[in-house]
Amino acid sequence: xxxxxxxxxxxxxxxxxxxxxxxxxxxxxxxxxxxxxxxxxxxxxxxxxxxxxxxxxxxxxxxxxxxxxxxxxxxxxxxxxxxxxxxxxxxxxxxxxxxxxxxxxxxxxxxxxxxxxxxxxxxxxxxxxxxxxxxxxxxxxxxxxxxxxxxxxxxxxxxxxxxxxxxxxxxxxxxxxxxxxxxxxxxxxxxxxxxxxxxxxxxxxxxxxxxxxxxxxxxxxxxxxx
Length: 226
Hints:
Elements: E1 2-7, H1 14-23, E2 27-32, E3 43-46, H2 66-76, E4 80-84, H3 86-93, E5 100-102, E6 110-118, E7 134-141, E8 145-147, H4 150-158, E9 162-167, E10 186-190, E11 196-199, H5 217-223
Parallel strand pairs: 1-2, 1-3, 3-4, 4-11
Antiparallel strand pairs: 5-8, 6-7, 6-9, 9-10, 10-11
């Protein structure tokens, strides 16, 4: 399996994702955002960080990078795309995923571990979560408050396009278990074809016991089953 990790000015989780991909024997290449062609890739990853210093609006400037048109072509051909944190913001700004990501409800940067309920395992990213539907992953964001209209929320629910929701350790989904105010506790969504996943938590940061956990490993191992 081959992957490409897109590097933007201000990316700071690109190497972390590369390490995770390589751990699972996924052959990876780092691709600078000004490139105009993608290497042959089964999956393209847009990593976390602060592209362009979050100037104007998170992910806005990065979504205009030259490589994005190639990423859109890759998506339209059914290629897999994973956007993590800032990568999720870029996917929304580029129109590959719906909704908006706003400032956190309490207007503070959040950096901590959270619990997630895995809502949909019938996709290329989440199949290995079948035996563990409550997981723990880190978040680190200032604009992770996913907002969508009631109509869009219903559409996401009806199409089974919600991948993860914030929960407590027992899987209860409530206001108390929602760290940033996201609509319906949404932490990650899929497009209709289920070949694009955007998520605020960082699976690449928990892939080994030495990192204090490995719940993120199941996402990367799921990719190998495509």
